[in-house]
Design a protein that fits this description.
single chain; 99 residues; mainly alpha; 0% strand; globular
């Protein structure tokens, strides 16, 4: 990958901080993701544009950081699904570090 473009609708960006928008773009650029929505969605910056989310996070969440850490750790030939299975491990490490 040489370049990544993340397009955000100007009207949807109203009321969002530059930090929120840039963190959203990071998640879109560095990981294959879908919008987070619904009551069972993880606490993630990907919920930034969910119309039902009245309090989107101010930036990357612990889940987002754990997701990216799991995705990019280890050898590059390991399948993505195997790496994603380690998100909970990284999330636990982040939560223990916060204690």
């Amino acid at each position: 990958i040489v370049k990544v473009f993340v397009l955000i609708n100007r009207d949807a960006a109203v009321g969002k901080s530059l930090s929120q928008l840039s963190d959203y773009a990071i998640m879109r650029a560095y990981a294959r993701t879908r919008d987070a929505s619904g009551t069972s969605a993880a606490d993630t910056i990907l919920a930034l544009f969910d119309p039902n989310n009245t309090a989107p996070p101010p930036g990357l969440t612990d889940f987002d950081r754990a997701y990216l850490a799991a995705l990019y750790e280890g050898p590059p030939h390991v399948k993505g699904l195997s790496k994603i299975m380690r998100v909970s491990h990284h999330l636990e490490k982040l939560q223990k570090a916060d204690e």
